[in-house]
Amino acid sequence: MSRTRNYIKGLTTGYAATFATIAVGLWLTPFTLRFLDREEYAIFALASDLLMWLGLLDLGITAGLNVQAAQLTGKPDHERLNRLASTAFFTQNLIVLVVLIVGGAMAAGVPHFFPVRLELQHTTSTLMAMLVLGSAIGFSTKTFSALLLANQQIHIDNLLKLALLAIRTVLTVVLLTKGWELYSLAVASLAATVITSAIAVWRTWRLLPGLKVRWMLASWDVLKGIGSLGIWFSLGGLAGLVITSLDRVVAAKLISVETVTTLSLTGRVYALFAGLLDQITNTARPMLGQLIGQKKLAEAQRVYRHLFKLSTGFAVIAAFSIWAGNEPFVNQWVGAQNFGGPLLSLALALNLIVNSWVLPNRAVLSSALVVRPQTLSRIVEAVLNLGLSVLLAQYLGLIGIVLGTAIAGLLTSTWYLPLLTARLFKRSWFSFAREDALPIMVIGACILPVAWLMQVTGRQIGGFLGAGVSAALTGLSGLGLLWLIAMDGGLREYVKGAALGALHSPYRDSSGLRSGTKTAQPIPRLTKP
């Protein structure tokens, strides 16, 4: 299969999975709140956040395997791949024991770290223990998921996500109605993880019949090679968790456990749409790895530039569209008591833009194995984030916590990662700022007054209708601006083809065929994003 077909399949199924997650999440949240009080819901949200920290015990092995295996698919080396897979698999299964030990300690300590009321402390420990068990099972099969991704089988991973969503949703609904309360969420998550992990293993063996995972193929030298790269991925993941998930922990410690529910529900739509934006760049990672592995840097640069315009442009449009309709939506969806106010919503919109701004940079830098400098930048950002969030929380409450995250990103990654990318492609940072970033900033400046007007309008109309009208009109105006200001002729042609569902876009492979636009050299199909 061509890179183009695999990219489009991955992107299509990714959006299907993400839209399904959005739809189910929007429906399931108010349904769950009928059976749980605000503190119980906050406990599950906090437990899910803490569970992500166990992923750091991976030490970046999965990420390192993913990148190196993707480069190997560009120049197949089955012996090297078998050694990589065997080393990663057996190392991760040793780490599973550590996951269970550390997770057990977390399960015992969580009810005492947060001010959980007495009658919920045992339930909280049991909930956390069940989530840890599910995490350990998923940990043991990460190697197979990484191989699927490296071989541009992202659509399979997305279909597995759909299966997991369906299983978890059905079990959650059934168990909640049977009176299992918080245990419903943990049991549903555990069962879905077991089933989908088994399917991932089976699918990998079908895809790679020559794959050999043997203890004798595991190599200390290979582990050092993966680990030397993976440790930086792991440190970057640690910093990323501080940036993305510590807001709720800070809110629970400095304000109250119940405010976690307010923060989660006010930001729910932003979080769901962040998943949509992630698909644009994450789906392109294996392809970028293949191109860079084949030394096709000119093609990789074109992919990156298109990714940046699409990803950041859509992020700006989505952030302001959601802000325009968020208040009437949340009020109708889960009640006005769960909405944190327009200023908190605006701070969350800014966070979405800042976090999405660097996604294309992370994708291309990681694919090129430029990991250490971006990780160091991420660590500095995380330290600033934590300090600013704690400081501003004293004066601005939840708004200060969210603003601390945005300010830290603006001071670090949003300018430094583009600088690293410019150096990778031997391009000046100022040309990036002028040619790529400036059009997106102009779009944001133009759409802000439209979003403010629509926000007032949506509040007056009220309900889902007011939310839909204000968000839709803001989004349409933003898409028009994106089309006119940021997209060049080639990207417009690709978007037209993709919108019509054409798998044969006007772009061609680098086999010497010309594209539909005039150019002095062949350009890749936008495959590549």
What does this protein structure show overall?
With 529 residues, the protein is an all-alpha fold. It folds into 2 domains: 1-251, no CATH class; 255-487, no CATH class. The chain contains 21 helices and no strands. It has helices spanning 3-33, 38-54, 61-74, 78-113, 121-140, 142-150, 154-177, 182-207, 220-254, 258-266, 268-282, 285-293, 297-334, 342-357, 359-367, 372-396, 398-411, 413-424, 429-461, 463-486, 489-499. It is globular, with a radius of gyration of 23 Å.
Spans of at least 5 consecutive residues with low confidence: 502-529
Order of helices and strands: HHHHHHHHHHHHHHHHHHHHH
What's the number of structural domains?
2
Average predicted local confidence, pLDDT:
79
Give the biggest sheet: none
Strand content: under 5%
Number of strands: 0
N/C terminus separation: 16 Å
Q: Sum up the overall morphology in one term.
A: globular
Secondary structure: helix percent: over 70%
Radius of gyration: 23 Å
Which secondary-structure class do the elements indicate? Answer: mainly alpha
Number of helices: 21
